[in-house]
Structure formats: C-alpha cells, structure tokens
Amino acid sequence: LSQQGCRVSALLIHSDLDDWEVKGSGGFGQVYKARHQKWCCDVAVKLLHDDDGTSSSLLREVRMMCKGSSPYVIPVLGVFKDEKNVRQEIAKVTLQGPPPWPLAFRLTHQVALGINFLHNLSPALLHLDLKPSNVLLDSFLNAKLTDFGLAKFSQSVTRKSKKYSDEEEGGTISYMPPEAFSISYNPTRASDIYRVQHLIWCFLHQMSPYYALSSIVRLRIPQGDRPSLDEIRFLAAGRAGLARLMELMQKCWETKPAQRPTSHGKKTGWDGCLRA
Fold it and tell me: Which CATH number fits domain 101-274: 1.10.510.10, 3.40.50.1010, 3.30.930.10, 3.40.630.30?
C-alpha cells in the first residue's frame, strides 16, 4: 500500500480487534465498530463483500483519505492485510431537531476548513459527495469529512467529458450541482462548493432539502430551482450572523460555477460570515 501512494504503515490482523458491532451496510459491504486491543481505542472497520473489483476502489479511497489528512477529515489508522480500511471511530451523535445557531455556524466553519484543506492540496482534491451522512460528529460535536469513494484530484478530471447520470459517478442526486447534469460536466472546486450550501441548509433544518424528489431534482435544479429559505428567513430576526449565512448559501448555489465563492479567503465572504 505504501508503494501506491499511502503512508499508512499499520497492517492489522483480526486478532487485534474485539467487540465487533455492525454500524452500517451498503452495496460495497459493511462498516463495523470494533475495539483495538493494543491501541485501547475504538475504530471503524470497512469490510468488503466478496471481491468483485471493489477492493481496488477501496484502496483508492484509502489513498485519497491519506492525502486529505486534516483535523476535519476522518483519519485512516491502518489497513488489514486483506485490504480492509480502518478509521478512527467517531461517536454517532444524533441531534434532536435543528442544532443551536452557534453549533450550526461552527459545523459550517469546520466543513469549510476541511474543504479548504482539500482544495488547496496540489493538485486539489475534490470530494464530490458532500452530504450530511458524509459529515460525522465526534463526541465534542466537531465535524469531520468522510467517504472519499468518489473523490478525484482536479488534474484527473480536466481531460475528459462524461455525463454523471447516477450516484456511482456524480454523487447523490439531491446534492449534485446543476452542471453535473450536463453531458460535458467536468468537476471543479465549485462542484464541492455548491454542495456546501445543501449542508448548511441541512444543518439548519435537520432534513433533506429534496426529500424523495430525485426525479424532479434532475429536471428542476438545472433550471434554477433551489431549497426554500422562507423558514430560515422567518427565524433570522435577532440572530447574529444568520442573514449573512443565508447570503452565503445563495452564493454557493449560483448556477454558474464561476460565480460561487471559494472555500477560503476574506474576499469571498466565508471569513466574515463565519466569524460573525
């Protein structure tokens, strides 16, 4: 694995882990929580189904996560000899209703810091699947980005044109930017920035902006339809910084990628809004 661009050196064996507990599953396999006996800490373990070509994809995801190492990105701690990925265990925190405004601002800021780190790598690393389920909270309610299965380095997407028509390539439809529905779509940093506004909306509402409407989203988003801000606007009175956060959301969902802010810099409004 080190020869393929990842610095993870720990090779784990099954006997090191105990107290296995299923935490999630999908087409690729299952994610478990386990206790590492020697490290004395909990870890998350991604185990694949029978090898159907997905092992190379998982190794690719591990390398992406190694490259994107940041306080706001889930770290990879080691790899099984059979190429399973072990990550730091993050407490699965469920917020009861929308978070308090200060917490919503902090989560937004931490996501922005994580994306800013990825986008300032050389070449830039594009996450391309930002959504609430891919932002985990630790026991101190700090946000950390995870799931780099669709991530790409910017130089790897500039020389090809392909229509991203399903979740395997373009990400979750409800969070895809309008340009992703074009046959000539080439992901850029702005593709991630569009998805950030959906995260902000979800932080404030604790629900998906387009619940069960994926077929309509595919048609309406390229035409300019966006989530409603009516409820947030009603609650904004007297809430310091909320109006600026709404303004930031609207900038992030601009139809033209070039009109969206970057994840860094005072010129684009991130710093001013998130320090409010």
Answer: 1.10.510.10
Helix (H, G, I), strand (E, B) or coil at 80: strand
Domain span(s) for CATH 1.10.510.10 in the chain = 101-274
Alpha-carbon distance of 17 to 33, in angstroms, equals 10
Indicate which residue of 18, 52, 129, 147 is catalytic: 129
CATH no. for 2-88: 3.30.200.20
Give per-residue pLDDT as tens, 7-35.
545 667 778 888 888 877 655 667 788 88
- Active site annotation includes 129: yes
Predicted TM-score of the model (pTM): 0.76
Taking residue 49's Cβ as centre, other Cβ atoms within 10 Å add up to 12
